[in-house]
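This week, work through this protein record:
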Amino acid sequence: MLAQQARGFSFDFSVVTNNLDLYWAGVRLTLFIAVTSFVLATLLGVVIALMRLSRNRLVGAVAAAYINLFRAIPLLVFILFVYYGVRIAFGLTFFTALRAGIFAFTVQYSAWLGEIFRAGIQAVPGGQREAALSVGMGRARTFFTIVMPQAVRISIPPTGNMLIGMVKDSSLVYILGVNELLRTTNLLANRTFRYFETYLATVGIYLVLTTAIYYLVKYLERRFAISDVLSQATRRYSPFARNRYQRLRTLQEAVGGGSSIAP
Protein backbone atom coordinates (compact mmCIF):
# COMPACT_ATOMS: atom_id res chain seq x y z
CA MET A 1 0.00 0.00 0.00
CA LEU A 2 2.82 2.37 0.86
CA ALA A 3 4.48 1.48 -2.45
CA GLN A 4 1.28 2.36 -4.30
CA GLN A 5 1.06 5.68 -2.48
CA ALA A 6 4.69 6.41 -3.31
CA ARG A 7 4.12 5.70 -7.00
CA GLY A 8 1.11 8.02 -6.99
CA PHE A 9 2.75 10.83 -5.01
CA SER A 10 2.64 14.33 -6.46
CA PHE A 11 4.14 17.32 -4.70
CA ASP A 12 1.57 20.05 -3.96
CA PHE A 13 2.77 22.88 -1.74
CA SER A 14 -0.51 24.78 -2.06
CA VAL A 15 -1.73 23.00 1.07
CA VAL A 16 0.84 25.09 2.93
CA THR A 17 0.39 28.40 1.09
CA ASN A 18 -3.38 28.17 1.49
CA ASN A 19 -3.06 27.71 5.25
CA LEU A 20 -0.37 30.22 6.12
CA ASP A 21 -2.64 31.76 8.75
CA LEU A 22 -2.68 28.45 10.64
CA TYR A 23 1.09 28.16 10.47
CA TRP A 24 1.50 31.77 11.61
CA ALA A 25 -0.79 31.16 14.60
CA GLY A 26 1.25 28.08 15.51
CA VAL A 27 4.54 29.99 15.19
CA ARG A 28 3.28 32.81 17.41
CA LEU A 29 2.21 30.40 20.13
CA THR A 30 5.49 28.50 19.84
CA LEU A 31 7.48 31.71 20.25
CA PHE A 32 5.27 32.81 23.14
CA ILE A 33 5.88 29.55 24.98
CA ALA A 34 9.62 29.59 24.30
CA VAL A 35 10.25 33.27 25.12
CA THR A 36 8.04 33.32 28.22
CA SER A 37 9.56 30.13 29.58
CA PHE A 38 13.08 31.32 28.77
CA VAL A 39 12.65 34.66 30.55
CA LEU A 40 11.20 33.00 33.66
CA ALA A 41 13.84 30.26 33.59
CA THR A 42 16.60 32.86 33.30
CA LEU A 43 15.35 34.80 36.33
CA LEU A 44 14.97 31.62 38.36
CA GLY A 45 18.32 30.35 37.08
CA VAL A 46 20.09 33.46 38.42
CA VAL A 47 18.54 32.83 41.83
CA ILE A 48 19.59 29.18 41.74
CA ALA A 49 23.14 30.16 40.73
CA LEU A 50 23.43 32.63 43.62
CA MET A 51 22.08 30.03 46.03
CA ARG A 52 24.57 27.52 44.67
CA LEU A 53 27.40 29.96 45.41
CA SER A 54 26.10 30.87 48.86
CA ARG A 55 28.43 30.47 51.80
CA ASN A 56 25.54 28.92 53.70
CA ARG A 57 25.94 25.18 53.26
CA LEU A 58 22.22 24.52 53.64
CA VAL A 59 21.28 27.00 50.93
CA GLY A 60 23.96 25.57 48.63
CA ALA A 61 22.77 22.03 49.28
CA VAL A 62 19.16 22.94 48.48
CA ALA A 63 20.24 24.54 45.18
CA ALA A 64 22.40 21.52 44.30
CA ALA A 65 19.51 19.14 45.05
CA TYR A 66 17.18 21.26 42.88
CA ILE A 67 19.63 21.15 39.96
CA ASN A 68 20.30 17.42 40.22
CA LEU A 69 16.59 16.59 40.56
CA PHE A 70 15.19 18.50 37.62
CA ARG A 71 18.07 17.78 35.28
CA ALA A 72 17.51 14.05 35.80
CA ILE A 73 13.83 14.01 34.74
CA PRO A 74 13.04 13.69 31.00
CA LEU A 75 11.23 16.83 29.91
CA LEU A 76 8.28 15.03 28.34
CA VAL A 77 7.78 12.98 31.50
CA PHE A 78 7.89 16.12 33.62
CA ILE A 79 5.33 17.89 31.40
CA LEU A 80 2.92 14.96 31.75
CA PHE A 81 3.56 14.75 35.50
CA VAL A 82 2.80 18.44 36.00
CA TYR A 83 -0.39 18.45 33.94
CA TYR A 84 -1.89 15.04 34.66
CA GLY A 85 -0.26 14.38 38.02
CA VAL A 86 0.12 17.57 40.03
CA ARG A 87 -2.85 19.36 38.44
CA ILE A 88 -5.33 16.54 39.06
CA ALA A 89 -3.98 15.44 42.44
CA PHE A 90 -4.14 18.94 43.96
CA GLY A 91 -7.11 20.25 41.98
CA LEU A 92 -5.16 23.08 40.34
CA THR A 93 -7.83 24.07 37.84
CA PHE A 94 -5.98 27.27 36.89
CA PHE A 95 -3.17 25.07 35.57
CA THR A 96 -4.20 24.99 31.93
CA ALA A 97 -2.26 22.96 29.41
CA LEU A 98 -0.39 26.07 28.27
CA ARG A 99 0.50 27.14 31.81
CA ALA A 100 1.54 23.62 32.74
CA GLY A 101 3.89 23.50 29.76
CA ILE A 102 5.43 26.88 30.57
CA PHE A 103 5.82 25.87 34.23
CA ALA A 104 7.56 22.61 33.27
CA PHE A 105 9.93 24.38 30.86
CA THR A 106 10.70 27.09 33.41
CA VAL A 107 11.53 24.71 36.24
CA GLN A 108 13.63 22.30 34.22
CA TYR A 109 15.53 24.86 32.16
CA SER A 110 16.24 26.96 35.26
CA ALA A 111 18.29 24.04 36.58
CA TRP A 112 20.47 24.02 33.46
CA LEU A 113 20.72 27.81 33.33
CA GLY A 114 21.58 27.93 37.03
CA GLU A 115 24.66 25.82 36.38
CA ILE A 116 25.59 27.93 33.36
CA PHE A 117 25.36 31.16 35.36
CA ARG A 118 27.26 29.65 38.28
CA ALA A 119 30.09 28.64 35.95
CA GLY A 120 30.10 32.10 34.38
CA ILE A 121 30.35 33.83 37.75
CA GLN A 122 33.12 31.52 38.95
CA ALA A 123 35.04 32.07 35.71
CA VAL A 124 35.64 35.72 36.63
CA PRO A 125 39.10 35.92 38.27
CA GLY A 126 38.89 36.31 42.03
CA GLY A 127 41.60 38.94 41.94
CA GLN A 128 39.16 41.37 40.34
CA ARG A 129 36.79 41.04 43.27
CA GLU A 130 39.62 41.56 45.72
CA ALA A 131 40.85 44.62 43.83
CA ALA A 132 37.37 46.15 43.79
CA LEU A 133 36.90 45.53 47.50
CA SER A 134 40.33 46.97 48.25
CA VAL A 135 39.41 50.34 46.74
CA GLY A 136 36.27 50.59 48.85
CA MET A 137 33.59 49.09 46.60
CA GLY A 138 30.97 47.12 48.48
CA ARG A 139 30.19 43.50 47.72
CA ALA A 140 26.91 44.29 45.99
CA ARG A 141 28.47 46.99 43.81
CA THR A 142 31.42 44.75 43.00
CA PHE A 143 29.10 41.98 41.92
CA PHE A 144 26.85 44.08 39.71
CA THR A 145 29.53 46.31 38.14
CA ILE A 146 32.57 44.00 37.95
CA VAL A 147 31.51 40.36 38.16
CA MET A 148 28.07 40.26 36.57
CA PRO A 149 28.94 41.97 33.24
CA GLN A 150 31.82 39.55 32.67
CA ALA A 151 29.72 36.55 33.75
CA VAL A 152 27.02 37.55 31.27
CA ARG A 153 29.57 37.75 28.45
CA ILE A 154 30.94 34.31 29.32
CA SER A 155 27.44 32.82 29.59
CA ILE A 156 26.10 34.09 26.25
CA PRO A 157 27.03 31.06 24.06
CA PRO A 158 25.62 28.30 26.32
CA THR A 159 22.58 30.44 27.17
CA GLY A 160 21.91 30.84 23.45
CA ASN A 161 22.03 27.07 23.08
CA MET A 162 19.43 26.81 25.83
CA LEU A 163 17.13 29.22 23.96
CA ILE A 164 17.47 27.16 20.78
CA GLY A 165 16.65 24.04 22.79
CA MET A 166 13.64 25.81 24.29
CA VAL A 167 12.23 26.64 20.87
CA LYS A 168 12.58 23.03 19.74
CA ASP A 169 11.32 21.50 22.99
CA SER A 170 8.22 23.72 22.92
CA SER A 171 6.84 21.19 20.43
CA LEU A 172 6.44 18.72 23.29
CA VAL A 173 3.37 20.52 24.65
CA TYR A 174 1.42 19.29 21.63
CA ILE A 175 0.75 16.17 23.68
CA LEU A 176 -1.34 18.32 26.05
CA GLY A 177 -3.44 19.65 23.18
CA VAL A 178 -1.77 23.06 22.92
CA ASN A 179 -2.12 24.35 19.36
CA GLU A 180 1.50 25.30 18.83
CA LEU A 181 3.30 24.70 15.55
CA LEU A 182 3.60 20.92 15.71
CA ARG A 183 -0.01 20.27 16.75
CA THR A 184 -1.23 22.69 14.09
CA THR A 185 0.80 20.74 11.55
CA ASN A 186 -0.61 17.42 12.78
CA LEU A 187 -4.19 18.64 12.47
CA LEU A 188 -3.58 20.07 9.00
CA ALA A 189 -1.81 16.92 7.79
CA ASN A 190 -4.58 14.64 9.08
CA ARG A 191 -7.21 16.81 7.43
CA THR A 192 -5.53 17.11 4.02
CA PHE A 193 -3.48 13.87 3.93
CA ARG A 194 -0.54 15.93 2.59
CA TYR A 195 1.93 14.79 5.22
CA PHE A 196 5.12 15.44 3.30
CA GLU A 197 4.34 19.06 2.41
CA THR A 198 2.94 20.03 5.79
CA TYR A 199 5.80 18.55 7.79
CA LEU A 200 8.35 19.88 5.31
CA ALA A 201 7.04 23.40 5.96
CA THR A 202 7.26 22.82 9.73
CA VAL A 203 10.84 21.58 9.45
CA GLY A 204 11.70 24.70 7.46
CA ILE A 205 10.06 26.99 10.02
CA TYR A 206 11.98 25.45 12.91
CA LEU A 207 15.17 25.75 10.87
CA VAL A 208 14.52 29.45 10.25
CA LEU A 209 13.74 30.12 13.92
CA THR A 210 16.79 28.32 15.30
CA THR A 211 19.09 29.81 12.65
CA ALA A 212 17.87 33.32 13.49
CA ILE A 213 18.61 32.71 17.17
CA TYR A 214 22.04 31.33 16.28
CA TYR A 215 23.01 34.51 14.41
CA LEU A 216 21.55 36.66 17.18
CA VAL A 217 23.76 34.88 19.71
CA LYS A 218 26.80 35.26 17.44
CA TYR A 219 26.08 38.98 17.18
CA LEU A 220 25.84 39.30 20.96
CA GLU A 221 29.11 37.40 21.35
CA ARG A 222 30.88 39.84 19.04
CA ARG A 223 29.12 42.84 20.54
CA PHE A 224 30.23 42.04 24.08
CA ALA A 225 33.61 40.54 23.23
CA ILE A 226 36.68 42.02 24.90
CA SER A 227 38.67 44.16 22.45
CA ASP A 228 41.70 46.42 22.57
CA VAL A 229 40.53 49.68 21.01
CA LEU A 230 44.11 50.74 20.20
CA SER A 231 45.28 47.62 18.41
CA GLN A 232 42.32 45.63 17.13
CA ALA A 233 40.21 46.40 14.13
CA THR A 234 36.72 47.66 14.75
CA ARG A 235 34.06 45.87 12.73
CA ARG A 236 30.71 47.40 11.98
CA TYR A 237 28.12 45.25 13.72
CA SER A 238 25.33 47.81 13.90
CA PRO A 239 23.95 50.87 12.07
CA PHE A 240 25.68 53.02 14.69
CA ALA A 241 29.10 51.48 14.10
CA ARG A 242 30.37 54.49 12.16
CA ASN A 243 29.86 56.76 15.17
CA ARG A 244 31.48 54.14 17.36
CA TYR A 245 34.46 53.99 15.03
CA GLN A 246 34.85 57.77 15.15
CA ARG A 247 34.75 57.75 18.95
CA LEU A 248 37.42 55.05 19.06
CA ARG A 249 39.54 57.00 16.58
CA THR A 250 39.25 60.13 18.72
CA LEU A 251 40.19 58.11 21.79
CA GLN A 252 43.24 56.73 20.00
CA GLU A 253 44.40 60.19 18.99
CA ALA A 254 43.89 61.48 22.53
CA VAL A 255 45.99 58.67 23.93
CA GLY A 256 48.63 59.40 21.33
CA GLY A 257 48.93 55.97 19.77
CA GLY A 258 50.69 55.69 16.46
CA SER A 259 48.69 52.76 15.12
CA SER A 260 45.48 53.16 13.21
CA ILE A 261 42.13 51.54 13.66
CA ALA A 262 40.79 49.92 10.52
CA PRO A 263 37.24 50.98 9.73
Q: What stands out?
A: The first helix runs from residue 2 to 7. Residues 94 and 206 are 30 Å apart (CA to CA). The chain has a mean pLDDT of 86. Residues 13-226 form a domain with the MetI-like fold fold (CATH 1.10.3720.10).
